[in-house]
Write a structure and sequence with these properties.
Helix 2 crosses helix 3. The protein has eight helices and no strands. Helix content is 67%, strand content 0%. It folds into two domains: 2-62, Orthogonal Bundle (434 Repressor (Amino-terminal Domain)), CATH 1.10.260; 74-115, no CATH class. 14% of the residues are buried.
């Protein structure tokens, strides 16, 4: 419950919003919202769903079941399923490849970097 409260607070602060603004947007009173954000009170599923819609994130992310903020589209879900069916060794090889590719396609920051 505390992780969900922390995530709710972090999202609000990252969006530069006041507790009052979020409370109004998701349809709860300010005192109730404050208690959700501090973890003194459990966040009802319908309130969490409204917060997820408000921020544009998935319920899994809002409820801290994942750190991926968006729901996976079907084709990505299929890729994830295939990835998790691989051996740990093959998963590590894919991760290494992805890191290499990300470095290759990273935008150059300076003219000096472009010359390399």
């Amino acid at each position: 419950m505390q992780r969900i409260a922390e995530r709710l607070k972090q999202l609000r602060e990252n969006a530069y919003l006041k507790q009052k603004d979020v409370a109004e947007a998701i349809g709860v009173g300010l005192d109730a919202y404050k208690s959700y954000e501090t973890g003194r009170r459990s966040i009802p599923a319908d309130v969490l769903r409204e917060a997820a819609k408000f921020y544009g994130f998935s319920m899994d992310y809002m409820s801290c079941l994942t750190d991926i903020p968006y729901a996976l589209r079907d084709e990505f879900a299929e890729l994830a399923e295939q990835y998790f069916s691989l051996t740990k060794y093959d998963q590590e090889r894919i991760q290494e490849r992805m890191l290499t590719m990300r470095e290759m396609y990273k935008p150059h920051q300076t003219l000096k970097d472009r010359r390399k």
